[in-house]
Amino acid sequence: MKLFLVLLFCAPLSAFADAAQDLKSRLDTIQSLRGRFTQALTDKTGANLQSSAGEFALQRPGYFLWQSEEPYEQTVIGTPEKVWIYDPDLEQVTVRGSEQQSDNSPARLLSGDLSELRSSYEVSAKSNDKQAFHLVPRTSDSPYRYIEFTFSGDKLATLHFQDKLDQKTEIHFEQLQTNISIPADTFVFTAPEGTDVIVDE
User: Fold this and answer.
1) So what's the pLDDT on residue 174?
2) Nearest to 36 by CA among 174, 181, 159, 154
3) What share of the chain is helix, strand, coil (3-state, %, to 5)?
4) How far apart, in whole angstroms, are the C-alpha atoms of residue 94 and residue 7?
5) Which domain holds residue 189?
6) 75 occurs within a structural domain
7) Do 123 and 19 form a contact (C-beta atoms < 8 A)?
8) Residue 111 burial (C-beta neighbours within 10 Å; 0-12, 13-18, 19+)
9) 6 inside domain
10) Fewer CB under 10 Å: which end of the chain, C or N?
11) Is residue 142 in a domain?
12) What local confidence, expressed as pLDDT, does residue 5 receive?
């Protein structure tokens, strides 16, 4: 890890610029995306904390759905203005305004405006692999130490990120449908009857 950091910060600026432009060009081709995912969360020792699977959808600019299935059911819906986080086991939904949203979260990065990608992250090609990109946030208040995108051909394959607690999340994408029409009500959340609604604004 130390050697990688030395190489990362000693690399020529042109390498960062080229990698950032390459990543932006790849993500710019995705205006909408739908598919399934498997997700694993591990602690800093590598021990598995939680594994889940489900479906997701995103629509630029700023709309996304992330729906995990049993046994860890949860639905997260984001729009440019709000995010709804619904936990059916708790019969609770938390609603957050845009000022509480993390603009550099992986979901926001995938679904949002990419014009500030280079100013928000130091982007490099991972291990000389032109299909993998390593992003380090430029601000210390980011909840993530890094985010990594890996592509297979022109399709997004995996997404990895590490948080400030050194927990790592690894997401694999499959059954992807790119640039399809996604119904607007996909990104509308209506709380089921009896659900506690907590507004965090």
Assistant:
1) 95
2) 174
3) 20, 45, 30
4) 41
5) 13-200
6) yes
7) yes
8) buried
9) no
10) N
11) yes
12) 33
Does residue 14 contact residue 124 with C-beta atoms inside 8 Å?
no
Q: Is 64 helix (H, G, I), strand (E, B) or coil?
A: strand
Mean pLDDT by 10 residues, the chain (201 residues): 35 56 90 95 93 94 92 91 92 81 65 80 77 91 90 91 94 96 95 90 66
Contact 157, 175 (CB under 8 A): no
Split into its structural domains, the chain has a count of 1
Site of tokens 């709380």: 191
Cis peptide before 12 (omega within 30 of 0): no
Quote the tokens at residue 31: 């205006």
Q: State how far the Cα of 66 lies from the Cα of 56, in Å rounded to an integer.
A: 5
- Placement of tokens 């995912």 in the chain: 37
Q: CA dihedral in degrees (72, 78, 83, 86; nearest 10)? A: -30
Q: Assign residue 21 the CATH number of its domain.
A: 2.50.20.10
Q: What angle do CA 87, 89, 93 make, to 5 degrees?
A: 30
